Structures are given as structure tokens and as C-alpha cells.
Please model this.
Amino acid sequence: MPEPILIIGAGIGGLSAALALHRAGLPVEVYERADEIKETGAGLTLTEPGSLALDALGLKQESFDLSDSSAVTAFIHYQTGEVFHTTSAPEGEAAKRLGTRVVHRSDLHSLLFETVVAAGISIVTSSKLIGIEQDADRVYARFANGRTATGAALIGADGLRSVSRALLCGDTPPNRTGKVAWRSLIPTELVADLTGGHASAVHFGPKATFVRYMVRHGAVLNCVAIVETDIMADDSWSTPSNTAELKAQFTGWSAGLLALIDRIPSSAIYKWPLFDRDPISKWTFGRVTLLGDAAHPMLPFLGIGASMAIEDAVVLGRAVTESATLEEGLVRYEQARVDRAAEVILTSRRQGELVQGEKVIEMFSKPREPMSVFNYDARTAKV
Model:
């Protein structure tokens, strides 16, 4: 029996990679450092390239059913509270496309997890990676609990603070951006009278952005505030914050937004610092490669991070299938993705500068051309 491909990390990227490789006919084992598989998080944006990649994994309808359209979004002035622009619903041929959708992160993660389990793919928890070795035929993984694993290849899908990346590329810190994000998920009924009837809205202002959209078909409101600030936040996705701290970031903003923030229970508010990394041109070394945030963490201003990880997985599966050897497939995967990853990282940075710049209202008061980074299909991209 052929040796499995080892995947480090059971997040969205790792589980997507497991499915893609399984569909390619390869044995897979997933190793996760946490003691149990769970995803809390908040809402996430699923761009059309992400939806197309999920289609390649056989999950088009299931992911569509879990998510909601965000085609129509109100842009709100930070001081007046007035809607100064509304994105238009697609018409004609554009209306037939999947478009950008929003989903609760845990719902998408659960779909991937349940599909992986149903496929009979092994997921081993309590497995913190501490070492990687390889020879001409195999790769060997060592874990902090004393466990070892041998495989034909290893895919590091272990996120921003990737141990896989540190072992391959050196343990350099990510870029601290000086921006902090606050997030909360609350029942929509708590603030229904304050949403102005907009299922999706962005409050734009200099040095801060407040994004809100409904998930779970209108039952839950996801709120994300991104602020350029001197406030320090622990390097964690789930550092508790409170209503007063969040509200203080928006002094001078519209009464409507401040009233909405007042309705968010302190127990539902968390904060975390935003990081990214500079693009790299090499993340494959022999039988080991990186995927998702381990390879290309980016700022959230395009809402494309999760989609990029799923794209990676689909291209990886295609590259391996279309190559004579596994090592060739890993190299082809890297070559197919490095330029796109670099483009998206840098575009995300530029978008952050624009949406929190002094001329943001003027810039977003009129329709803008679709960005080229959203014109990508992992099912057909050159490999």
C-alpha cells in the first residue's frame, strides 16, 4: 500500500487539501495540534474563486446552501451615517455566476470536516509538529507527544504561525501591521432596527472600517472592525475585549453605528492584531510544501484568504494528478501559485491603504471596476 501524504493542520486549507488529494486517488493523513477539532471564529467571505474551488471538491451545492449572497452592500459615511453608495445586484449573464458569498466560518469548516471523515480520511489530534526530515523516498514528521509519522510527502497547512514554514524557511516573525481587528457574532434580532434593512454594509472612515453582514440566512450578524491603532492585542484570534473598548475606537462616528455597538454584548467581542508576510517565491522543498496561510498569509481587506487556501488545495490535487512523480507535482503546484499569492498579498495591502485613507469616501462613492484577483478558476488555471 502506498504511503500517505501527511497534512499538518485541520483548518479550512488542510481539510480542503485532504479532499483534493483523496479525490486524486492518494492516501492522506491529517495531523492537528489541537486536542479536538472545532472551529469557532466568525463570518468569512467566500469569493467566487473560492466557490469554484469548492465545486472542484464536489461541494458546490452544499457550500451554496450554507452561505448567503453579499452582492448588494451599503457603503455608509462614518460621520453622517448616510448611505453614500450601494453596490448593484448583478444582471444578465453576471447574475448566473456564483459571485461573492458570506458564510459562518464554523459552518464551512464543519462541512469540510464531515466530508473528510465520511471519506475515511484519518485525522489525528493532539499532534504538534516539531520536526521534519526527508530522504529520496519519504518524509518523516515528529510530534511533541512523541508520535512520528512517515509519508510520501508532507503538506504544511498550519497557518500564520506555521511550524512547517519555520522548519523549511526559518523562524522569522510575520509583519505586524499596526492594525487591530475586533470581531463579534450576535443574533440579528438584537440590532435589527439599526441595520437600515441592509443585510451587508461597510462603514467607511479614515483609519478605521466597520464591516457587518448577516450569515446563517439572516439569523446572525457578523461584525468586524479594523482600526489603525496603538492598542496592543495579544497574538490570538480570541482575546476578549468589551463594548466600551470597541466603541472608543469609533469616537466621532455616526450615532447609528455607536448605537449598534452599544447593543453588542461585551462577552461577544474579541480582538486580534493583523499580520501578513512578504511574498516568497519558494515554498516547496523536496517532498514538503506549504499551503494556505502557511505559504501566503495576507490582510483581510479583499476577503479572499479562505478562498486562497481552497484554491491552493484544488491546484495541488491537479498538479499531483497531472505529474509523473509526486515531487514534480509539488513543484508544479508551487509554480502555479506563487505569482497569484504574491499578487493577492500585495493587492490586499494596497486595498487596506485605500479603504482607510483620507479620500476613502470620495473613492468609494462611485462604481469601481472589478478587481482582477477575482478572475481566477482553480479548476482550469494553468498547472
About this structure: Residues 19 and 116 are 6 Å apart (CA to CA).
